Amino acid sequence: MSDREKARALMERLDKEAKAGGYFLSTDEEMVLDLMDGLLVNQQRYGYLACPCRMADGIREEDLDLICPCDYRDPDLDEYGTCYCALYVSEEVVKGQKKIGSIPDRRPLLEERAEIKIKKNQAANNKSSAFAGASQPVWRCLVCGYLCARPQPPLKCPVCKADKDRFERFA
Length: 171
Prior knowledge:
Oligomer: single chain
CATH topology of the largest domain: Ferredoxin Thioredoxin Reductase
Radius of gyration: 17 Å
Number of helices: 6
Largest sheet: 3 strands, antiparallel
Strand order of the largest sheet: 4-3-5
CATH class of the largest domain: Alpha Beta
Order of helices and strands: HEHHHEHHEEE
CATH superfamily of the largest domain: Ferredoxin thioredoxin reductase catalytic beta subunit
Strand content: 5-15%
Structural class: mainly alpha
Number of domains: 2
Distance between the termini: 44 Å
Shape: globular
């Protein structure tokens, strides 16, 4: 399979997953295929589909927020009608009712990400849970917010298809 065929296959997979979740890929097929090329290069380089429009650290746990679909997709779609790399777009953009432009990168700087991680861990340790006494932990998908109660998070999110390590213990 050629590189372009691999890119097309990835595009078709992501498009199917996007539509199943109520999302849309950009209608600019050449741009989308170029993004797929970048995602595939990053998958080969790092072992995961890191956003090709951002600098990955090369350490999966440090890059979880920018594995496609990144954690910033939904807020970007809400505010700008497109995600940072313009792979995902709003329905208004697809229908031609809204034009896309450049948008700021929401990803915090490395130092800020470290502080956020510390605060999240502290909050998780100190949280008095409404789920206290539950027989199983509750897991939340960091990409789409899906919640499930089970001993371990699912291998893939049933909603957005994010990997197991994109879940956090919610309660």
